Amino acid sequence: MPKSKRNRAVSLTKTKKKGREHKESIVNSIREAAENYNSIYVFTFENMRNLKFKEFREQLKSTSRFFLGSNKVMQVSLGRSVADEIRPGIHKVSKLLHGDAGLFLTNLPKEEVERLFNEYEEYDFARTGSITTEKVELKEGPLEQFTHEMEPFLRKQGMPVQLNKGVVELVSDFVVCEEGKHLSPESARILRLLGIKMATFRLHLICRWSPEDFEVYREGQDESDVESA
């Protein structure tokens, strides 16, 4: 009887080596890019949408490069102190790599970068667990946007519905979600059916480094750590 591939033993040393090689590849890529681009920015993001981000990255690939991933790996790549930084002052960038953050390396003028990031907004459907931005309530009566085949599905989402002469009808007022609350799986599905987009994918610039200067954009960052480093 042939051996199952599922039961095949995998050497942990091989997986560890592969992981280490992958990290080393990222470190080398970031260090190479840091030598080839005029400016380096730290940015953060909210409500990340991979497809939209990929489109934004493609739009700028002729002049810029993005890196997302482990903050620790990105910090190591640039250097976390004066002693190990790869270019003068660049360790200050590492100090501001926290949370949902990434690196943006570019040859674009500062004003163009600021405009691109400040204007960037993409709306999408909110996902389960996200915080709602408004209250959504449906009033009692017919829901003509839904076909009669959807009535059982809507009922499973907790909506008090029935069929009345083939028309889906809400038998009482129904609150889909309250403002400022975590979105349930059922509420997320209903909002999608209603076409209501509550999530906004945004990018925020945190700081900018160039060989000439270093600038912190966003208030609330730990500037004291940067200054004391």
Automatic annotation (TrEMBL):
Subcellular location: Cytoplasm; Nucleus, Nucleolus
Superkingdom to which the source organism belongs: Eukaryota
Any GO BP annotation: ribosomal large subunit assembly
GO cellular component, one term: preribosome, large subunit precursor
Domain Large ribosomal subunit protein uL10-like insertion: 126-196
Key words of the record: Cytoplasm, Nucleus, Ribosome biogenesis
GO MF terms, alphabetically ordered: RNA binding
Similarity section: Belongs to the universal ribosomal protein uL10 family.
Protein name as annotated: Ribosome assembly factor mrt4
Source organism (scientific name): Hevea brasiliensis
